Each structure stands twice: as structure tokens, then as C-alpha cells.
Amino acid sequence: VSTPRSEWTQGTMPHLYQTDPAWANKSYAGGTVRANACGPTSLSMVYIYLTGRTDMDPGAMAAFADANNYAQALRNGRS
């Protein structure tokens, strides 16, 4: 279970998981956060730790990466 958003604070590393139902089925890199978004999930954790902001969960970070062409569509688990 991911750290609840209400507990996300600056200086405390949240535990976020790609499989969390809140974002697991959102699209990312030609698949889903569950399948492809280890990078955006990790980046979200660091972002929250450094800023304390709660606006970039793994689903939002994945959407940002897709929208700005930071992610290539993955095929058969490879880019």
C-alpha cells in the first residue's frame, strides 16, 4: 500500500507503488503505469521528498512525461 497522500511531506520519503489502484491503470509509454512507469513512480517519490508538494503522483508524473515526449512507447518490454 502506498503512503497516503495526506502523509506526503517534505523531507520524508513516501512509499509509492506502480500497482496502486489510484494510478496503476493510467496510460504511460504505450502501456500503463502498472507495467511501464517505474521511472515516473521513483521520480514522484523524490519530487515529494524534496518539495513536499502533492500534485505529482505517479499517474500525473507519467502523464507529464508522455505529454512532453519524455517517454517512448515500449514494445515487448523494450524501448
| Share in β-strands | 5-15%
Structural class: mainly alpha
Shape: globular
Biggest sheet descriptor: 2 strands, antiparallel
The total count of strands amounts to 2
- How many angstroms separate the termini? 29 Å
Query: Count of helices?
Result: 3
Strand ordering within the main sheet: 1-2
Give me the Rg, rounded.
12 Å
Averaged pLDDT = 93
Helices and strands, in N-to-C order?
EEHHH
Low-confidence stretches at least 5 residues in length (pLDDT < 50)? none
What is the share of helical residues? Answer: 25-40%
Description of the structure:
This protein is 35% helix and 5% strand. The chain is mainly alpha-helical. A two-stranded antiparallel ribbon has the order 1-2. It has three helices and two strands. Helix 2 (38-51) packs across helix 3 (58-67).
Draw up the topology in text.
Layout: E1 27-28, E2 31-32, H1 33-36, H2 38-51, H3 58-67
Antiparallel strand pairs: 1-2
Helix pairs in contact: 2-3
